[in-house]
Write the structure tokens for this entry.
Amino acid sequence: MDGIGTYGPVPQVQSAEPRQISPDEKTVAGFVFKVQANMDPKHRDRVAFVRMASGHFKRGMKLTHVRSKKPMAITNPVMFLASDRELAEEAWAGDIIGIPNHGQLRIGDTLTEGEAIRVTGIPSFAPELLQTCRAGDPLKSKHLEKALMQFAEEGAAKVFRPMIGSGFIVGVVGQLQFEVLASRIELEYGLPVRFEPSQFTSARWVTGPQDKLDAFMDTNKGHMSTDHDGDPVYLTRLQWDIDRIERDHPDLTLSATKEMMV
């Protein structure tokens, strides 16, 4: 640890909008880069990992959750070292603290002392593998929805809800992730699930003028879905479809990445 302190880089300037955050600023600012659910098997806890970008944080401080514009009292921040955790009485720029919460904090969220500033540069990538997910017990579909949305907030998978039909389409970047998800859902929620092949092979977030977007969604309902944020996503089988849409709908943008903060 002494070596890391000696040779590790100092905190850097953090990209943000409408301005960058300097680590030597007096006011506190930090951003969520990871969310982990069910870290304590005895409780359905959810810990948001926050990297401090500036200022001197003290336990009990009230910080503004920029996305919701609401104040949050940070009373039980924790610091982790391997499997050990302890209350964090204070933290400086460059430190990482864990904030237990019940879903208020998501990846990309920014916490400040009141300034409306948001950290940028945390992308969400389009998945490379898509499969439908169904509960072993059809009566527990609501439990499945809760589990999938929680994992989507973690960033462990992308979850899409088709505009036509029922069920969910889960996207990942590696086949092993489907097995990991199935195991976690059964272990943490007591809900056996099965993944089945999907007709789709790729996903693209769609943005553009609202009237053009609405018209496009109406004529392509069989391919449209929404992600866990409610943003429209185009699902397709062929690269040719993506090329055709980009040619026929120049006002719309199909993107393989999405900024993790709204």
User: Anything to note?
Assistant: The first strand starts at residue 16 and ends at 17. DSSP finds five helices and 22 strands in the chain. Residues 157 and 177 are 8 Å apart (CA to CA). The helical segments are 2-7, 141-154, 175-189, 210-219, 239-248.
